[in-house]
Amino acid sequence: MARVALSSGVRTVPATGLNLTDMTTQTMVAGADNGVEVPYQQGTYLLLRNDTAGAAAYTIKVPTPAGMSARGITVPDVTVNVAVAKDMLYPVDALFRQSGDLVYVDCEQAAKIACIKA
Q: What's the pTM value of the predicted model, to 2 decimals?
């Protein structure tokens, strides 16, 4: 499989607040390059929800600029570990922006994800 677009899109936090516990999330397909594509927007956060039976390691892909790649330098991806039955709110950074203004997120488990804009 390949990455898919985040089906719920980016949710904006209303003036009355947002109940994260009941928020709709998307179940990810486990494995490298099988995750989701999230539109990059300044001020967004990833809601990483682990409702699986084991720890979940989410990988946020970080592109390596061509000038660095030409010199043999590779920028490492960011790994966010989420314990069983826990949620993590993680800020999206411009460093994660891929071509097409997307952010790529993979997970080794079939855990869940959503995107929130403050």
A: 0.92
